[in-house]
Amino acid sequence: MDLLRSISQRASDAGLPAAEDAEAERRALLRRVSDAVKAVQIQFAGKQELATCADARISTLCAQLEAALCHGLKSLKKKGAPITFWPYVKQFLGAADLDRIMALENITNDCGRGRAWLRAALNEHFLEKQLRVMSNDREKGRAFYDDHAFMLDEELTSMLATLILGLESTLFAIDFESDDLNGIKTAHQTHSRTPSSGPAALPAAVRPISVDNKAAPADDTPAAMFIAVHNHSTALDVEIVRKKTKKKKKK
Predict the structure, then answer these.
(1) What span, in angstroms and rounded, lies between the C-alpha atoms of 134 and 68?
(2) Rg (CA), the chain
(3) What is the mean pLDDT of each successive set of 10 residues along the chain, which is 251 residues long?
(4) 189: which of 128, 183, 215, 244 lies 20 to 30 Å off by Cα?
């Protein structure tokens, strides 16, 4: 017991959270992403409406994902250092994908490149696959993250990927070339706008997305995946709920 107290005290003296606090932080991050995913699913899943950064739900989703990717970065301990996950993420990109992000004219620093990559990954639905690759290779992350970091938790990173899988039927069209992405901000800052009441226009900088226009049955909307993360569970409970719309009969 004395040894455990000594280890905990050394961690505290070094500015690192105790194991219990770190675990709580990581799970809180996952719950916030889960809530953001659910909000996006309710509004956009299985619909032809484009999900753009003009909607606060999309801004919030991006902000929560950035928070998870920035959690435990070693650069957070360096005063004045930019908070960016790009140096970590780019290790997992192929040459073509890396060149594509580096070639974005309006994106001029690593903060912007990380955010641009995240938004492009959502648009093109490759974020889930990328997260699974990352969760299986924690060694690459140790140069950039402290041991308590979210991205070094294999279980939670895998659960995060499962959450993102629930966005497959959402038509993202997020602008990832805006120079606003270059801003040096903390991971928790977001510039959200009021949710739009109708379909948003496609930003000029968004890469075209292939859309399957196959109509759903008249009495059935596409399935929406709702993912609940429970505080005291180590597994992710995935509930697939098919909502049926029925015309109300007049009495």
Answers:
(1) 13
(2) 20
(3) 36 57 94 97 95 96 97 84 92 95 96 97 96 92 94 95 96 96 58 37 36 33 30 30 36 43
(4) 128
Shortest CA distance to 193 belongs to which of 53, 43, 56? 56
- Residue 228, φ and ψ in degrees, nearest 5: -110, 130
Q: Which residue has the tokens 């290779």?
A: 137
Judge contact between 143 and 21, C-beta under 8 A. no
CA-to-CA separations, 149 to 37, 72, 245, in angstroms, rounded = 21, 4, 43
Structure tokens, 123: 């648009």
Tell me how long the chain is: 251
Tokens of 191: 């510039």
CB contact set of 226 (below 8 Å; sequence gap of 6+): 38, 41, 166, 239, 240, 241
- Cα separation, 11 vs 129, in Å, equals 34
